């Protein structure tokens, strides 16, 4: 859609060229969300495509995903056979509603949009990913995926800050991952997403919980929990009042299906009893 309020379009080739950030400026990555609805508060778009940040690097230490790496790129690269967790990231791509979005939207854009139903946030949390944040003043810092999104469409990013790169360690990528998502309609936003990760060497289990809550949550266990214990584990970790309640689903429904998805994920691994 034509964004009537936008008066200025910038396309820097270096971050240092972006000066004088204002409250009515916005980063433009793939543009799939920005151009999908009116943005009356945005007067300047700062296009990230000229910054050369689309890397997808497979290294002995882990995986780096650059800020403008398009989601579908995750499907096109050969990964080490010892990285079964890549299946979880690739599931996140497939779970997006439309192939048109997959081929234009960026992984980082999905995380920065910070929808409760983000396809990528729960898998990043389950894999213990971290994000490199750059500021316009030249500084940078790293934040855990779990600490990045702090509510529905809210992140820790300060004005002008940019999610520069996503990092997942090689060790996390050796975990097995099972991605579970449920909607009340065939095409629609998820009401619950559970991404289970299992370390076959240590028996540790991690659940990234999304869509049923405003921002992704992590539940960890040092050993495989019994399926019958999952309800108590979930209720102890996330109070009912933290589950979303809206026209799509009640908080009780969301908590219940989240528990079912946790059970199914463990059953798919062939663990839990
Ligand atoms: C029809 C449709 C269906 C969709 N279905 C789903 C779905 O099923 N599941 C799902 O999770 N999402 C869904 N989405 C949302 C989709 O995932 C987002 O539109 C997409 O991920 C945003 O990525 P983008 O690169 O296009 O970001 P943009 O639209 O360019 O930007 C999105 C927001 O993030 C900011 N931003 C982007 N990159 C950065 C960065 N690196 N640093 C700081 N800020 C940044 C922008 O300023 C903007 O506020 C859907 C969207 C549409 C239009």
Tags for this model:
3 domains, binds flavin-adenine dinucleotide, 273 residues, Enolase-like, domain 1, five-stranded antiparallel beta sheet, alpha+beta
Counting DSSP H or I runs of 4 or more residues, the number of helices is 8
Overall helicity: 10-25%
Hetero groups in this structure are: flavin-adenine dinucleotide
**Average residue-wise pLDDT:** 95
In angstroms, what is the radius of gyration? 19 Å
Succession of helices and strands: EEEEEHHHHEEHEEEHEEEEHH
What is the CATH architecture term of the largest domain?
A: 2-Layer Sandwich
Please give the CATH class of the largest domain: Alpha Beta
Residue share in β-strands: 15-25%
Structural domain tally: 3
According to CATH, what is the topology of the largest domain? Uridine Diphospho-n-acetylenolpyruvylglucosamine Reductase, domain 3
What does the largest sheet look like? 5 strands, antiparallel
Classify the secondary structure makeup into a structural class.
alpha+beta
Quaternary status? single chain
Distance between the termini: 51 Å
Strand line-up across the major sheet: 4-5-10-6-7
Identify low-pLDDT runs: none
Number of strands: 14
Provide structural commentary.
The structure is a single chain. This protein is of the alpha+beta class. It folds into three domains: 8-50; 52-171, Uridine Diphospho-n-acetylenolpyruvylglucosamine Reductase, domain 3 (2-Layer Sandwich); 175-269, Enolase-like, domain 1. It is built from eight helices and 14 strands. The strands form four sheets. Strands 4-5-10-6-7 form a five-stranded antiparallel sheet. A four-stranded antiparallel sheet has the order 11-12-13-14, with helices on both faces. A three-stranded parallel sheet has the order 1-3-2, with no helix packed on it. α7 (230-237) packs across α8 (251-269). The model has no long low-confidence stretch (mean pLDDT 95).
């Amino acid at each position: 859609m034509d964004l009537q309020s936008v008066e200025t379009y910038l396309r820097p080739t270096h971050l240092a060229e972006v000066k004088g950030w204002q409250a009515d400026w916005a980063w433009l990555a793939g543009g799939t969300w920005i151009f999908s609805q009116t943005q009356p508060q945005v007067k300047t778009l700062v296009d990230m495509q000229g910054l050369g940040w689309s890397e997808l690097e497979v290294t002995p230490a882990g995986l780096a995903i650059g800020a403008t790496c398009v989601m579908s790129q995750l499907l096109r690269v050969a990964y080490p056979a010892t990285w079964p967790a890549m299946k979880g990231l690739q599931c996140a791509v497939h779970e997006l509603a439309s192939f048109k979005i997959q081929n234009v939207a960026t992984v980082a854009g999905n995380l920065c949009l910070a929808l409760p139903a983000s396809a990528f946030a729960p898998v990043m949390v389950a894999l213990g990913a971290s994000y490199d944040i750059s500021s316009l003043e030249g500084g940078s810092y790293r934040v855990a995926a779990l600490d990045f999104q702090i509510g529905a469409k809210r992140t820790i990013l300060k004005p002008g800050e940019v999610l520069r790169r996503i990092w997942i360690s090689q060790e996390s990528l050796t975990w097995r991952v099972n991605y579970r998502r449920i909607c009340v309609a065939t095409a629609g936003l998820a009401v619950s997403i559970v991404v289970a990760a299992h370390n076959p060497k240590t028996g540790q289990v991690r659940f990234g919980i999304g869509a049923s809550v405003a921002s992704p949550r992590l539940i960890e266990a040092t050993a495989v929990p019994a399926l019958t214990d999952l309800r108590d584990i979930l209720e102890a970790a996330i109070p009912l009042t933290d589950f979303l309640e809206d026209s799509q689903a009640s908080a009780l429904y969301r908590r219940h299906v989240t528990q079912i998805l946790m059970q199914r994920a463990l059953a798919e691994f062939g663990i839990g009893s």
